[in-house]
From TrEMBL:
Organism encoding this protein: Kribbella italica
Source taxon at top rank: Bacteria
Protein name: Uncharacterized protein
Length: 36
């Protein structure tokens, strides 16, 4: 596998994980706001 393809796939997986973390954090924040 070329190094460029490896870097691209790593960047895509990192972006996906970061988006999932952001959406999870927003959901947790809304949940805590709904409780109070």
């Amino acid at each position: 596998m070329p190094r460029r393809a490896v870097g691209t796939s790593w960047a895509l997986s990192y972006a996906g994980a970061r988006r999932a973390c952001t959406s999870y954090a927003l959901a947790a924040l809304q949940h805590s706001l709904a409780i109070t």
